[in-house]
């Protein structure tokens, strides 16, 4: 994904969709087709909330592609594979829009693909978003991931500005405060057989993706600084932390809720396997 200098004034985490790139056009087309297919399926089977499902699938497919670009910045094929891998997860339920966007931003902040740390303006947005996520119990794992990402931005090399620490503290306060004020957490839900299978696939993909970490060659969008291996490793470990936290609470629903993240981490070894075993012999 390409970015423009115009965004530099206000944000260090926004990335522009440049339609000159085939991968960007692919993401938009895939998301649109998936949403239309979902809408047709729900309407033809008299399913409830057809438009709601279509919207969540639209965002989910795009986020699966976008988040994989953060998890595997040197290999566009992984991002191409992610929307396909997302499909079986959709059988368990639609992804959550806000939580999925939150883990996308968390991944982007950790790997620092824009080349910049979150700005003060970003901090205001992140604090407000954390408050919203805190008010939604099913989004607590995503809220935790976002706070952790901003904190790690100051810790990982190259270290970010002190404002990242201040922002992380304010995000924590906003999340906890909103949770205490407005959240109505339900009971823990035991994962279904399908959700356990999904969790197992995520763990396998996570282990393979971590082993595959290599020094990246990609550079940041705004500041053309080469991405670091340490940050790529950290961002690939993030799904593991989110999965563990999500299985603790809310339980099984964390699998469909954050399915774009799971599809992204699985896509890394899956695309590599297809490339080596199928495409290369051809």
Description:
The chain is an all-alpha fold and 282 residues long. It has one domain. It has eleven helices and no strands. It has helices spanning 22-44, 50-71, 76-90, 97-111, 120-134, 140-155, 163-182, 193-211, 229-248, 254-257, 259-279. α1 runs parallel beside α3 (76-90) and α8 packs antiparallel against α9 (229-248). The model is unreliable at 1-8 (pLDDT under 50).
Number of domains: 1
What is the percent of helical residues? Answer: 55-70%
Strand content: under 5%
| Low-confidence segments | 1-8
- How far apart the termini lie comes to 29 Å
Secondary-structure element sequence?
HHHHHHHHHHH
Major pleated sheet:
none
Q: What structural class should be given to the helix and strand makeup? A: mainly alpha
How many distinct beta strands? 0
CA-atom Rg in angstroms: 18 Å
């Amino acid at each position: 994904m390409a970015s423009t200098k115009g965004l530099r004034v206000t944000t260090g985490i926004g990335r522009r969709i440049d339609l000159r790139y085939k991968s960007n056009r692919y993401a938009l087309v895939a998301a649109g087709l998936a949403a239309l297919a979902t809408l047709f399926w729900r309407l033809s089977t008299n399913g409830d909330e057809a438009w709601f499902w279509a919207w969540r699938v639209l965002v989910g497919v795009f986020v699966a592609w976008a988040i994989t670009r953060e998890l595997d910045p040197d290999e566009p094929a992984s991002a191409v594979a992610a929307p396909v891998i997302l499909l079986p997860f959709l059988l368990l339920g639609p992804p959550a829009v806000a939580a999925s966007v939150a883990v996308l931003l968390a991944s982007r902040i950790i790997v620092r693909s824009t080349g910049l740390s979150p700005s003060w303006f970003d901090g205001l947005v992140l604090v407000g978003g954390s408050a919203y996520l805190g008010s939604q119990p099913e989004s607590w794992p995503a809220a935790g991931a976002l706070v952790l990402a901003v904190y790690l931005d100051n810790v990982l090399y190259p270290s970010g500005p002190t404002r990242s620490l201040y922002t992380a503290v304010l995000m924590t306060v906003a999340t906890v405060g909103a949770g205490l004020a407005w959240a109505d957490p339900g009971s823990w839900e035991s994962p279904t057989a399908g959700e356990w299978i999904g969790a197992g696939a995520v763990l396998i993909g996570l282990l393979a993706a971590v082993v595959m970490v290599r020094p990246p060659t990609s550079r940041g969008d705004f500041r053309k600084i080469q991405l670091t291996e340490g940050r790529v490793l950290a961002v690939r470990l993030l799904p593991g932390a989110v999965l563990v936290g999500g299985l603790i609470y809310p339980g099984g629903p964390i699998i469909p809720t954050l399915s774009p993240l799971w599809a992204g981490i699985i896509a890394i070894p899956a695309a590599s396997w297809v490339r080596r075993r199928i495409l290369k012999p051809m």
